[in-house]
Each structure stands twice: as structure tokens, then as C-alpha cells.
Amino acid sequence: MTGALLPLAVAVPLLAAAVLTVLREPALPRRVILLGTSALSLGFGVLLVVASWDGGIVSHNVGLWPNGISIPFVGDMFGALMIVVTSLLTLVCSAFAIAAGDEERRFFAPLVLVLAAGVNGALLTADLFNLFVFIEVMLLPSYGLLAMLTGIRGVRAGRLYVAMNLLTSTVFLAGVGLVYGVTGTVNLGELAGLAAESELVATAVAVVLIALSVKAAVVPVHGWLARTYPYASPAVTALFSGLHTKVAIYAIYRVYAVVFEGDSTYLWIGVVAMGVTMVVGVLGAVGENTTRSILAFHMISQIGYILLGVALFGPLGLTAGIFYLLHHMVVKASLFLSTGAVEVTYGTNRLDRLGGVARTEPLLAAAFLGAALSLAGMPPFSGFVAKLTLVRAAFDEGQVAVAVVAVAVSLLTLMSMLKIWGGVFWGRSPEDVAGHHLERHPRGALLTRVRPALVLPALVLTGVTLGVGIGAQGLLVLAEQAAAGLLDTSGYIEAVIGR
Amino acid sequence: MTLAISVGLLVAGGVYLVVQRGMVRITFGFVLLGHAVNLLLVSGGGAFRREAPLMSETDASVAADPLPQAFVLTAIVIAFAITVYMLTLAGVGKRDDDTRGGPAVSGEKDEEKA
Asked: Where do the NADH:quinone oxidoreductase/Mrp antiporter transmembrane domain residues begin and end (chain A) (predicted)?
């Protein structure tokens, strides 16, 4: 694959978004363009994985400007794997949004495509300032998507979300300014290793990393996530859960690996923060009583696991972290979509107003149960391999305490998943609870059924986690190669600055 | 030194406004914070060279660094777009721009459409 194709990963979704802004009707071509562009992006990601097999790196300087002053795009194995999974999630969540009716809303499709363009750009750029720009490109449509679909609650959540993200972006930009002030460059290739040599650079880059940690919702700066995600529409929550925090996590991995070269001086901070994140996230979920607020707190907990990979560093730690990241994106979206299907059909996500869904919707229940077990780390799903590799890495690095925390938190995760299972899928159907208006068959079955188009997206993603769990070796090899690219950054640097 | 003091003053004012309750004040706070960071970016390029950075016209030793200026230009455009959107969010919904209680208050008339 030639490097000149890389900017297309940003340009094509942007162009498609522009077309959809003008051509809103009829619905069929609009949906074809929305799903088709996501599918193209998925195909592009697969091609990039093939091209970066065994350490291959594809790079391009936009406008053929010389190295160092151009806008660089670089695709390696880590970025390619992320593009595959983020595109898959955009595709599946868009399909869910079409089934749920969200996509009928004006500008929904173009906003999703701009979001996808920003994500692709952030994953491919090798420049801190362009990273800022692409994260903004990703966030601006999100502000709209969050606020426009759920009435006044969406607006209130939107106010909080915009304020939080703008503050973080401002800190990020200040960090970029400081980095430029002390080094004279914001190109990742030229910054390589500088933070490990100079404490001044390390401080400046730390400002950038702190801003990224807020966007990734690491404890103690996690409060915004649990207060905003549950108030978007189900499709949008699933989309955000797979893309936003995960792009920030990707950037933390990339920046720490390249600019700090994995300097072990600061890793203890990460190990402590991630241990606390795991525990606080899972405990926060205990007091919640709606499906999505429970899942949102679990996301915070799982972010601790993912970033533990970079805090452990080393080949096994990074492999485990990357594997966990990819697995988690799929599983979390699956959980949001299966509970979202219930919410769209029955109009509520409160545990005390739901029940007995498994009786009428065995497929949806299976999709939820599979993803929930995967999240908790049960075989044969991908979560088992992810947790096992991570705990092994923690033992290898001598971080026994955090390994014990990781295992203990898994049990609490399972407990919370069982709480959703018991509240929504198991037990008696909701007629036994006061204040609902669902029609029922005389023998107890619900007459309101979840449409197959709403079940399918979650089922597909649960199928992916099962497939990855059974054939884990395949993804582990890819994750190992991605980790190797982060451990030895010489190939990446050469691709960025050409020497 | 002037730059450092300006950045400090803008950040102080910005932070004061951002921690207020009303959305309009928060928006103004972000305008101030945005200016502070823009000045920080410009000072990152060094304030000692002031000439217009035109390749053939200006000697490189006195020309200002154009890259931070390009950064600031991009940042201003993004900040402007978000400011407009934040003011929109302050204006829609009920006749308030309150951020207190936030979305977590579910007992109120949530069904009211924006």
C-alpha cells in the first residue's frame, strides 16, 4: 500500500459528510453513503494491517513538503488495528442508529462521518499539534450528537460535556505550546526520546499527557464520563464509548512510547493511578440503578486495565494493553447496544422497571450475556485472554499488588453484570411492576418485541469477541507486533522524519 | 515578562468565570482561557524576533517564528466555533443557562424537548 492513500482516510469521510449535508433525502442513498463510507474505512484498516505486517510502516507527507515541516501521516500496526476496530464500531453503531430511528434526525449521518474522519486522523498523525486538531474534529460533531437527540437532558449533559472537553483541549494546547517552547518542534519523530533526556521536556509533555488522561477518564478526573454518557441516545453512547476515550488512550500509548521512550522513572505513577481507577470505577457502578450508568462506571474501571499496559511497559505489558484495548472497544459497544435495544423498545433503562427480557428475546439476552462474561474475563471470550495476559505481565514486572487488584475487580465486575442480567433479562416481566403500559400475552410473554435490526448489531459484536477469544493467538500476534513497534520506535521515527 | 503577566491575568480571570454556574459566564471564561493559551503559543516561538516572516523579504535572524502564528490561527478558528456552540447550548432549553445539578437530576420535567 502506498503512503499517498493515508490522507484519504480523513478526506473521504469528510467529503461524504459534505455530500450528506446537502443531500438529506431520500433515506436510502443517505444510508448507503453512511454505511458504505464506514465499510470503506474498515477495508482501508485491513489493508493497512496487511501493509504493516512484520514491522512495515507506511508514511506520507501531505503536499510532498520535506520532512520536518510537512504534515506527516504514518500508519503502523498499532494505528492500523485501531482503525479496523473503530471503523467496525462506526459501521455497527450506524446500523443500530438506523434501526433505532436516530439516523432520521437531521445531520446525524454527516456528524457521524466527521467524527470518523477525526478519529482516523488522530490515529494516523505523527504531530502533536495535528493530534490536537484531529481530536477537535472528532469532538465538535460529538457535541452535536450528544445534545441533539435526547431533549433537555441531552442539552444539560451537553453543557457539561462541552465545558469539560474544551477545558481539557485548552490544557492540551497549552502543553503543545510548552513543548514547542522548549524543543522548537511538535513533530513526534523529532521529539523522540527527548523527554527521557530532559526533565524540562518531560514536564511539558506531562501537561499533554494529563490532558489526554482527562479525556480518557482516568480517576480522579473521571467524573464527567459517568455524568454525560448515560444521557446521550443509546447508539451515540455506544459510538462514544468505542471511539472517544479510546483515541485518548491510543495517544497516551503513542506519546509515552515515542517521546519518553518508555522511561521507567515515571511508570510507578501510572501503576498507582490505574490501580485506583480500576477500583473506583467498579465501586461507582454498585450504587447505580440504570443499565447505562452501570456500564459507564465499568468503562472507567476498564480504562484502568487498558492503561495498566502502558504503565507496566515491556513487551508483555504493551501486548496485553493493546489486546485489552481492542477487546474492550468491541465488548463495551456490544453491551451498550444490547441494553440500548431494550431501552429503545421498552422506553426505559431502569433496572427496577425492566425484567424477563430473556424469556422473549433469547438472542438479545445471549448477546448481552456473552459480552458481559467477556467483560468480566470469563473463557472462552476475548476478555479471558486479555485479563490473563495483563495479569501475567503484572507478575513479570513484579507488580503483584496491582495484579491482585485486577483479579479482585474482575469479580466485582461480574457481580455488576449479574445485577443488570437479573434486573433486565431475568426474573419476571415488567407488568409486575407498577407504572408501565406494556401489553402482554395471556400466558405471560411480552407482546412488544425487540426488532431483529436492533438485536443484530450487538450480536455481531458479541460474535467478534467470541471469535477473538477462541482464535486469540491471531490477535495476540498482531498485538505483539504493535507492541514491538512501540518498544523499538526507530522504524516509526525513520518513517516520520526520513532518517 | 509582559506576555507572562498577561497569560497569568487571563488564566486567573478565565478560571474564575469557568467555575461559575451559568453557561454564559463559563463561555466567557473559556474565551479568556483561549486567549491565554494563544499568547502562550506565541511566546513559545520566542518574543525577541518581531519582523514579518516573509521568506525573501526578511532576514531569518530577525523574522518572527511563523509556526506558532499558524497554530494560533488554527486554535482561534476552533475556539470561535465552540464558543458559538456553547452560547447556543446556553440559549436552548428552559429559560436558564444553569449548569447546577446537571443531568443527574432526573425527577424534573425531563420530557420537555429542547
From this structure: 127-413
